Backbone:
């Protein structure tokens, strides 16, 4: 009788967020199809709705009020301790609105990713929809990337883009981009946790090939890997 191959255990993922947590929700919704378990959610804003989403899913949720810490260094040191308690294979920033200390980024280097609502390197920082519309851009989108100490600058993993329609405003653009985020972020987390995606020599690699520096390109109406 042939034996079944051993089932590899799911990898442990910790999510950091500051607000609504719609990306966390997408990650939770896809968990059973993919190779990861969300084992903890930490927020620097104790009242973040994302923490409620985690609790509703029976995931450990911790609010760490940054205002009660004496310095960014002290806060990040505690954050490292709390995140490490979950023994994560991957740390996922999902709307985490506080700039991380270089120590935090270095501590989790190669297993720390972020999603940003622009076609990086365009529009780092805040207000990406407003700025793209003001510049009369024809395309916008989102980028999943490895995190380095420099803001929104690590190696790109996946970039999903759409055509800005003449009727788009900030709200509609955000809605359309977030629909893409909710598909590509769980996919990127899955690719990492099933061992297909790595950071090597400051580049993202998929299936042992370096990914194009812009990131693996996907379009709004075709969001699956070839
Ligand atoms: C997302 O649009 C993401 O690109 C950015 O922050 C937003 C978080 O949204 N980094 P949500 O909290 O996941 O709804």
Residues:
């Amino acid at each position: 009788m042939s034996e079944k191959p051993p089932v590899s255990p799911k990898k442990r993922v910790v999510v950091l967020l500051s607000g609504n947590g719609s990306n966390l929700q997408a990650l939770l919704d896809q968990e059973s199809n993919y190779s990861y378990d969300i084992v903890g959610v930490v927020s620097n804003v104790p009242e973040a709705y994302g923490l409620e989403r985690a609790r509703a899913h029976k995931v450990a949720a911790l609010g760490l009020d940054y205002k009660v810490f004496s310095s960014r260094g002290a806060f990040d040191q505690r954050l490292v301790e709390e995140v490490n308690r979950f023994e994560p294979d991957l740390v996922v920033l999902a709307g985490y609105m506080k700039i991380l200390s270089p120590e935090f980024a270095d501590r989790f280097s190669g297993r720390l990713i972020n999603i940003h609502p622009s076609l990086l390197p365009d529009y780092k920082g805040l207000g990406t929809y407003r700025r793209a519309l003001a510049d009369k851009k024809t395309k916008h989108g989102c980028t999943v990337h490895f995190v380095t100490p420099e803001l929104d600058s690590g190696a790109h993993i996946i970039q999903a883009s759409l055509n800005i329609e003449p009727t788009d405003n900030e709200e509609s653009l955000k809605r359309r981009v977030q629909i893409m985020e909710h598909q590509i972020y769980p996919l990127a987390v899955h690719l990492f946790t099933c061992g297909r995606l790595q950071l090597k020599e400051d580049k993202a690699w998929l299936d042992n090939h370096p990914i194009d520096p812009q990131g693996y390109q996907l379009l709004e109406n075709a969001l699956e890997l070839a």
